[in-house]
Amino acid sequence: MSLFIHRAARADAPYVVLSSGLGGHASFWNPQIEVLQQDFHVVTYDQEGCHSDSGLLSIPYCVDHMARQILDLLINQDIREFHFIGHALGGHIGMQLATYQVDKAFKLFSLTMLNAWGELDSHTQKCFQARTSLLLNSGAEAYVRAQALFLYPPHWISTHLDPLTEAENKQLLDFPPIQNVLARLQAVQAFKLNTEHQQALKDVPIHLIANQDDFLVPYQRSQQLQQCLPHSHLSLLATGAHASTVTETDQVNQLILSFLISP
Q1: Is the overall model pTM greater than 0.90, yes or no?
Q2: DSSP state string for 105-132
Q3: Pick from 92, 63, 87: nearest CA to 183
């Protein structure tokens, strides 16, 4: 795992930690860093097992492993108070983190979750099954080339095909061990919001962001998550699909920043 700290101009600025989804790369958040850096020290990180030279993940592997790993990195940097923003799986990591606050003596200022869920939708499960089948039966290239269909709106793909293909080519050069991809796929599907998460989050400000055209995770999952966390705020966008941090950058950045700096 690698931690990257993008410092704000103001030394006493608060920290915000960004946690990516299934891909696990810090670079997923590149469109957000500069805007957030105006008011926060921005922490991004590569999750364990997500590069071609990664060691094999322990089996079984779960969100609890992921949450404890990032918390250990933060505490080693003496970062004990922070906002947390997670995309899909990253949101699950944030919910799991909240359950450690008392034992580990840190404070979670707020939690923002983009296209996350408290309970896996059967449609999302079917998407993951298709991606798993592609990986096992057709290989890494088929898995990577199909990924955009789950992440981006059709028109965005049509108008960004060249840079998208270039990004896919780079991803293939750094594709992690298949066992690691499978372990992470299983972990994200196994997570489920429970009463321990709800109790740990009851005093934490929560912002949910969802996209109505998200093909991978139906936006109704965020609505259900809001019902389970009734003090949370839901921002529902019409477009942007699953990776709206990339496809609707300005709008998403403004929503994130407005929530973080609101009284």
Answers
A1: yes
A2: T-EEEEEEEES--SS--HHHHHHHHHHH
A3: 63
